[in-house]
């Protein structure tokens, strides 16, 4: 197994350096995906990419979080990685949990290792409650409780299976990506390991979640996944019986 970290970055020039340093301290190579950031953040990423073990993929036009992750996963495969750890650039994910994620991936390399957030008091209540609606839809659309939290952007992908999904199926390119790729991997037969991980929302953090636009995208995603589930329901149910 050859594992590296993929960090989608859009104007998080302040915290991203600390995330990179923490990942490098754990021995992971890091791929930064610059999603058409402003000049100041782009300069920070250029400086980081001069460090050993840090790579930079720059997108000329903003693709959204999902588009940046897709580009990063493709580049990761080109770098010879078999697995990619996705983590946010804003420092909300606890990098002290990286060894546990890596150990889980090493023990079962064919699985999606997915973070299950443990929040402190910094989490916005509206964001927290909104996640529960998505959890319910994911459980319906997979006919299982395989994925505890599909919106957590701290996870390890088995690259071969993930890139097959991306190549052959539509997967959202913005804030709908994390949930949709998790559901489609479950449909493809990829098992999931859910690991608890601490998540905090920095007071000075920059959020790119657009309430109306992204909620519309997420609602459309749940709709297409529901109809996709109906087509796959016999196979999903048979899988449960045989498990």
Would you mind describing this structure in some detail?
It is a single chain. This protein starts with a strand and ends with a helix. The chain is built from eight helices and seven strands, in the order βαβαβαβαβαβααβα. It is of the alpha/beta class and 243 residues long. Helix 2 links the parallel strand 2 (30-35) and strand 3. Helix 3 (64-78) packs across helix 6 (159-168). A seven-stranded mixed β-sheet has the order 3-2-1-4-6-5-7, with helices on both faces. It has a single domain (3-242), classed as Spore Coat Polysaccharide Biosynthesis Protein SpsA, Chain A (Alpha-Beta Complex), CATH 3.90.550.10.
Q: Please, how many domains?
A: 1
Stated plainly, the CATH topology is called: Spore Coat Polysaccharide Biosynthesis Protein SpsA, Chain A
**Helix content estimate:** 40-55%
What is the H-and-E element order?
Answer: EHEHEHEHEHEHHEH
Radius of gyration: 17 Å
The CA-CA distance between the termini, in Å, is: 27 Å
Structural class: alpha/beta
> What would CATH call the class?
Alpha Beta
Question: What is the H level of CATH, i.e. the homologous superfamily?
Answer: Spore Coat Polysaccharide Biosynthesis Protein SpsA, Chain A
Q: Strand sequence of the main sheet, in spatial order? A: 3-2-1-4-6-5-7
Please give the count of helices: 8
Number of strands: 7
